[in-house]
Amino acid sequence: MKEDTIKALLQQGERISLGCKKAENKLPNSLWESYSAFANTYGGTILLGIIENLKEQDRTKRFTIAGVQDAEKMRRDLWNMLNNKEKTNVNLLRDEDIEIIRIDGKDVISIKIPQARYNLRPVYINNNWMTGTYKRNHEGDYHCSDVELRLMFRDANEESNDELPIEYYTMDDIDIPTIERYRRRFQTENPEHIWNDLDNKEFLRQLGGYYVDRRQQKEGLTMAGLLMFGKGLAIRERFSNLRMDYIDKSNLEGDERYSDRLTYDGTWENNLYNFIRMVTPRLTQDLPRPVKLEGMQRKDDTPLHKAVREAFTNSVIHADFMINGILKVEKLDDGLVFTNPGLLKLPLERIYAGGKSKARNQHIQTMLRMIGLGENISSGFPSILKVWQDEHWERPILTEQPDLLQVRLLLKIKDYTKDVTKQTTENQYNETENNIKDVTKELSKRQLNIIEMIKEDRLVTTFDLSQMMGVARMTIQRDLQVLRDMGLIARKGGRSNGEWIVL
After folding, report:
1. Residue 412 belongs to what H/E stretch?
2. Helix %, strand %, coil % for the chain, to 5?
3. d(Cα 427, Cα 502) in Å, to the nearest integer?
4. Which of 302, 357, 372, 305 is nearest to 336 (CA)?
5. pTM of the prediction?
6. Preceding omega of 122 cis (within 30 degrees of 0)
7. Distance CA 14, CA 382 (A)
8. What is the pLDDT tens value at each position of the chain, 503 positions in all?
9. Which terminal residue of the chain, N or C, has fewer Cβ atoms less than 10 Å from its own Cβ?
10. DSSP collapsed to 3 states, 235-301
11. Residues contacting 166, CB < 8 A, separation 6+
12. At what angle do helices 445-456 and 272-284 cross, to 10 degrees?
């Protein structure tokens, strides 16, 4: 810190990352409240030896540099208190974080407080986490609520949130069609896996969705098992605080509020797996697919598609499903928005730089990875940034909303429909691509959605599609026949054990 830096900070006034204390001849009690608050929020700087006149309307004239008496003694006292467990449970500071700066002939003490790592929070004072834990909000410090405290304690535990045993919930609360859909996809992705021969209960146990406590002679579903594969009623009973919502606000006409929506309406079992498998195709259906071939097979799964799927998957595995909130996905004309309950474990700058923290829902993460979703999770948020950089699109915006206890990710996407020539970069396939475009002009939006859903899951059934589309099975069967007659899809194998092929 330098004199001009201090004066520049004071010109901006107190805020979420700056606090000022008079501290003429001793350390004020409010210093420790601010220490806890900065450590539990985003970090910041506390300046000792500054008087604030709250009646002054002009923010640039509000502060007076009064200085402190015997700054060296005050610094020693500060270190003694920081290392006293009766005052604070953890000392986050290094020697260089406490500086004495000479300004206009007076000593000001600058204390730089880092944001505490998630496994060190909550940072509290006076040996009492219930009354001594604070967070920062704009210009002030406030006591943490019970919800915020529980969230911090859960995050400090390196164990997965979703391994929590859900007492009194058994295999009777599992939706069999859901887990069978998952297992078909699992077998397709892992044809030789030994778990394919297990019954549903043992299969779930291997994935972390079912627990057996031999010591207490108890067994049942874990949080991961119930949320991923449970019956909607059972999930709503146990997690009444949670909602799942997908809303398509693109291509609206007139006074339309949305063009498509997926929320609980009694037409589908609203568990996480169904939500993920029904929403994912809707997110990727309009993304550009440049024509590429591997041998004689058309390959149109791009880094962009993978990045969108990873963004969706990350919002699920990092969500805190134990607090009131909504797992929400919005599709806009120019982008996608993912919102999930919970706060970030790491500072934003570390996330953008590639910092990694363990997912809150590690068993759900495993379940998704085993069927090919979230395959790039280990590469972190920068992999999404790189895709957007390569596309020359606006940088993804990740924000934390502490007042709502939620995280929001905005992925801005250029309106590529106005620049279709960019989609096809290999001239030898232009004629084929144009023919495909001519044909798909004749299709309805529902029929295009069916093609996209088959791309995501070639084992999808007419029953699955009717649930996902919210229409009768006869309607889906007619659409499928239209697509087959047009030569866009084909069926390989029988009705019960076959699969769809997108031609």
Report:
1. strand 406-412
2. 40, 20, 40
3. 22
4. 305
5. 0.78
6. yes
7. 32
8. 787 888 777 877 677 888 899 998 899 999 999 999 999 999 999 999 998 887 877 776 788 889 999 999 999 999 999 999 999 999 999 999 999 999 989 999 999 999 999 999 999 999 999 999 999 987 789 999 999 999 999 999 888 899 999 999 999 999 999 999 999 999 999 999 999 999 999 999 999 999 999 999 999 999 999 999 999 999 999 999 999 999 999 988 888 899 999 998 888 999 999 999 999 999 988 887 665 555 444 456 788 999 999 999 999 999 999 999 999 999 999 999 999 999 999 888 889 888 877 899 999 999 999 998 876 444 568 889 999 999 889 999 999 998 899 999 999 987 544 443 344 344 434 544 555 555 666 788 888 888 888 887 788 888 878 877 778 888 888 888 888 878 888 888 776 667 888 88
9. C
10. HHHHCCCEEEEEEECCCCCCCCCCCEEECCCCCCCCCHHHHHHHHHHHHHCCCCCCCCEECCEECCC
11. 220, 221, 222, 223, 225, 226, 238
12. 120
Order of all β-strands in the sheet with 18-21: 18-21, 44-48, 106-113, 98-103
Q: What are 63-100's pLDDT values in tens digits? A: 888 999 999 999 999 999 999 999 999 999 999 999 99
Rounded Cα gap, residues 451 and 502, in angstroms: 7
Distance CA 445, CA 356 (A): 39
Taking a C-beta distance cutoff of 8 angstroms, is the pair 103, 65 a contact? Answer: yes
- C-alpha span between 498 and 216 (Å, rounded): 44
Taking the C-alpha atoms of residue 315 and residue 389, their distance in angstroms, rounded to an integer, is 21
How many Å is the Cα radius of gyration of the chain? Answer: 28
Instruction: Tell me the residue type at 167.
Output: E
Q: How many residues does the chain have?
A: 503
User: 125 by DSSP, 3-state: which?
Assistant: strand
213-232 pLDDT per residue, tens: 999 999 999 999 999 999 99
Helix (H, G, I), strand (E, B) or coil at 141: strand
Instruction: Locate 286 and state its tokens.
Output: 């309009």
Within a 10 A sphere around the Cβ of 63, how many other Cβ atoms? 21
Q: Which amino acid is at 62?
A: R
Cα(40)–Cα(424) distance, integer angstroms? 49
